[in-house]
Every structure is written in structure tokens, then in C-alpha cells.
Amino acid sequence: MLGIYTTVIRAVPELVLILLLYYVGTDLINKASQAMGYGRVEISGVVAGIWVLGIVQGAYATEVLRGAIQAVPKGQLEAGRAYGMPSFTLMRRITIPAMMSFATPGLANLWLIATKDTALLAIVGFSELTLETRQAAASTRAYFTFFLAAGALYLLVTLFSGVIFSRIEKWARRGQPSLKGAN
Description:
The chain is mostly helical. The protein has helices at residues 2-11, 14-35, 45-71, 74-82, 87-117, 129-140, 143-172. It is built from 7 helices and no strands. α6 runs antiparallel to α7.
């Protein structure tokens, strides 16, 4: 079932999913609500967009984490079992710490993609950076200036996120051999 979720969600563009949830989802919820004797329900475009981005990023993150778990050396897990560790302890003390160094780069990439995908929320009326930039540029005719500023803001978020994620990755790789100086 999880495989179907990840395959379908990763195959359909986020914009299509946002529009489906916002328009079709609202219609289905209202039909169900009226059938049960309740009134109409208004779904915010922001809520629909955030739900879709969360569901889509969750599908990608699931695959990143699955790959990271599979990258954990089997010998480490066998050693934990040989010591008699219960499954939960094995996961908490061996699997999660060992997989973090493999998962962090992929999760950092997903964070940056999600940050840029927030521009899609403008399609359902959410006033985010790209929409505000477009409106300001249209009113002043200074398109280059405003879009350059918006690009700089996205760049700052990316650089700041890069610093945070490099620290997380350094923490996740503690105790592992360094690749510096290797040819």
C-alpha cells in the first residue's frame, strides 16, 4: 500500500494535486457534508496547498528514508541482534543513528524543493513571495528589481538552510571515517 502511495504521489505534479484537492476535494467534502445534514465547508487554498505539499514531500521523504535504512550495513544489525537487543532498541541505538548520515543530504534537498514549491500556492490565492513580487513588479514596472530581490531572498533561505543542514550532517557523521585526503 505504501508503494502505491509513493508511486502515485511522485508521478503526479504538485500543481495538479493542489488543484485537485482545492477544487475537487472541496466539492466532495461539501457533498458528503450536505448528505449528512451539515452545511457547506470552505477549504482555504493555503490549507489545501500545505496538505498537498506535505503529502508529496512525505512520499519523497519515505523513499529517502527507505534507501537510508537499506544502506545501513547488515553486520551492524546482526551485531545488535547477537547482543540480544529488542527490535525497538535495535532501531533506536543502531538503525536510526547509522541511517542519519545517509538520509540527511536527501532530506535537505527535499526541504529546499519544498521551500521553492511554496510558489505553487499562489495558484489557489495564497499571497506568497512570488505572487507578491509579481504584483509589486506589475505596479511599478520594475520587474528586474523585484524578481532579483525575490531570487535573493530564496538564495538567502537556501544558504541559511545549507549551513543548518551541513551542521546536522556533520553531527550525523560523527564517529565515521573522514573522506578528506582520500584520492
